[in-house]
Amino acid sequence: MKNRKKRLLALGLTAVLAMGSLAGCKGGEEETAALNEDGTVDTSEHVDLKMYLIGERTPDFDEVYDKVNEVLEEKLNCSLSVDFLSWGEHGQKYSLLFSGGEDFDLIFTATSWAHYEQTVAMNGFKPLSEDFIKTYAPDIWEVVPEEAWDQAKIGGEIYMVPGYNHEYTQDVMAIRGDLLEKYGYEDIKSMDDFKDFALKAAADGIYATQGGFYYQYFWNQGMTNTSGTPFNGELILYNTQDPEDLNFYSILDWDGFEDYCKMAKEMADAGCWSRDTLNSSDDRQTGLLTGRCASMVWNLATCKTYAKQANAEHPEWNVKLCDVNAGQPRIIKPYINGGVAINASSKNAERAMMVLNAMYTDPELYDLTYLGIEGKHWEAVGDDQYTVIDESGYGVDSNCNWGWRNMDLTRTEYIEDRTELDDDYDALLEEWNNNIKADHIYDSFTFDSSKVTTQVAAVEANIATYYNPLINGLVDDVDATIDAFRESLKQAGFEQILEELNRQAEEFVQSKQ
């Protein structure tokens, strides 16, 4: 972190500067900021704001946010209450907050996996003009790069404040080292290696993982999902490793999908994961931590966190970090992989934006929401590092604070007694930092589904019937199921989605030339 102490904010002076009498758009009506004589925004009226986050409420969350509210009350004359949509329910309940007229102000969102494009299509989010952002969140405007704002645009409008963070796309695996040694491996660096390892674990009666690993497979093939398209973009891919390839690949017309499904069936039939995996509500880490699975799949930092926990509880496991896509240039996720939007019907959109400005750029609030309470959950080491005291109540970067990540303020962990796991993590991160892939123009493209919402809904209705069983190898006949899936998507209007996608992509490419 650079010059952390020098980041003195307009917020710290209880002022978000307004340039004259600025007008913005709220619910189609003009709004004018109330200004004090000194030109600052009038916050004399106390307001109570509400925010929705995704995930699970940790034991100390309310205690931490009591501290957050002390700061907000003092500096912005407001309070913030938080409700959570759990991992298991947000897919069903997120859109209902808007269609049901729920009274709230702020909500976490993200491209593809956390309902950004779908909610914009249903007019759920307030469009954020440049003047509105500069007036009520001037510090955010200075921090967030232009590329991030461009990524957040749909139909020329910004509907979220994107996070400022470099997050790698490809997941890794946390794998039990004792089993690696037993099966003759020092490391797992390819899909073939992992398949062989998984089959050997299954032969010993140990699940290799909690389910299929299709994401890891298509990344291995150079592909990635197309933002905004049906079901988190998983049904339509593009070759992100080749900037010259501007084609989209429906998974039903891509040979790699059939190859993967047949491999997944072979592994499922061999017992590499539970036949009941589609009905499981377990978190990703549960199988590894309980000893039911030999590995878990997630991003690098999260795998390290749970590998540490597993090793603390079972030192004999010697859990390691393995990259099944070793050597492949790394994909950095879009900035809009995590952000915060304002409810279009919020009665206090201006104050909500000011609160987000504070959470995003005030070091005190940022540390609170990222790390918890200093002295209870963590201790500062210098200006830009921390040590953990106790993660059990709150957890580092574990409370859906991902919507206001700011890499300029994010502390790194100071590790005094380093382990092999720490060294592996640093080595992988250094390797990735030195091997970032070339930009592909589609990396910042987001499909606007508003013209094909009926077709998208019909396509997604087929996911549970065909797609999920296929990618987990839980079908009797792969070829027959793919054929049935293809016919069902045709009837749902998948071809119209592809036509609209290609039209928008062509316009997008032309606009960037």
From TrEMBL:
Domain of life: Bacteria
Signal peptide segment: 1-23
Keyword Signal in annotation: yes
InterPro entries recorded: Bact_solute-bd_prot1, DUF3502
Sequence ranges assigned to domain DUF3502 in this UniProt record: 443-509
One matching Pfam family: DUF3502
Keyword line: Signal
Keyword match Nucleotide-binding: no
Cross-referenced SUPFAM superfamilies: Periplasmic binding protein-like II
PANTHER family linked: ABC TRANSPORTER SOLUTE BINDING PROTEIN-SUGAR TRANSPORT, ARABINOSE-BINDING PROTEIN-RELATED
Name of the protein described by the UniProt record: Extracellular solute-binding protein
Organism the protein comes from: Candidatus Blautia merdavium
